[in-house]
């Protein structure tokens, strides 16, 4: 089997575990690494990833040099928060040159029909021009909110409702830009950009419309509510000081209504301290994070998955990475969560 030649772009909290798993991967050959930080440019990919294994692949900020590699696939792991237009601009030259792309970053592509058109349409055009394909995966939105959910629905009968909840303590999460969009450290009555702006709609509310469509219906509307909770003491987390009485936990409930009843309920419960929001959903076994899925109908069932924040970051990176083989075989275009044949890891410990 010929290994797919891949370029990695991004070595942050999500990108780093993705890079680590691509070093010496049995199916993929790392041929290029993009880094924008001066302290990473010029270093070996193995050193950056902390694998203690020299790869001979030296990080560069020279995009033209990476394009000249004519790789099979770009693994794009840049920060999307407040950088949507820049991220789109980063991947377009590769798609136009015929290099396919997988990413956990361009979240408007998770359910491309419902993503914000100003970010989806340039990607569509680039795929047509280059005859290339792109897939955006990750945990939430992504594998947990759609892929895993519909794997469970394979055993369902009549469905009354589906409920998906991400429950996570992100106090140690280093993705400062995305964490701040939830309003942590702000007054309890503050409604942050994630809730009020088009970022949240593009990232999350579009997921409900997509789930409805996958279920074969068009939702009547999506309603949202935002709840907050604080603590009575100051504490430090990755995003800085969170003062007593300010937001330390949020619960965002998005409800997709169909024929006057809730059909899809999608919740994000985020904390920056484990004691915050004790009345909100809690992760299984007091883990840092996890996912809860409840399917009500005939039959009804409930599942929970627990994970650490680091493992959650790894899954976010690896879900699209595991799709590289499929996306390289696919016809040109943007692929949603259920558009590709099943894919999974074959990276067995030997």
Any overview of this molecule?
The chain is α/β, with parallel strands linked by helices and 350 residues long. The protein folds into 2 domains: 4-137 and 323-335, Rossmann fold; 140-308, Dihydrodipicolinate Reductase, domain 2 (2-Layer Sandwich), CATH 3.30.360. The protein has 11 helices and 14 strands. The strands form 3 sheets. It has a 6-stranded parallel sheet with strand order 2-1-3-4-5-14, with helices on both faces. Strands 7-10-11-6-12-13 form a 6-stranded mixed sheet. A two-stranded antiparallel sheet has the order 8-9. The longest helix has 17 residues, at 198-214. The radius of gyration is 20 Å and the shape is globular. The chain starts with a strand and ends in a 15-residue tail after the last strand.
Q: What overall geometry do the principal axes of the alpha carbons give?
A: globular
**Domains counted in the coordinates: how many?**
2
* Rg (CA only): 20 Å
Helix content: 25-40%
| Biggest sheet record | 6 strands, parallel
> What is the distance, rounded to the nearest whole angstrom, between the alpha carbons of the first and last residues?
18 Å
CATH class of the largest domain: Alpha Beta
Number of strands: 14
**Uncertain ranges:** none
In round numbers, the mean pLDDT is: 94
* H/E element sequence: EHEHHEHEHEHEHHHEEEEEEEHHE
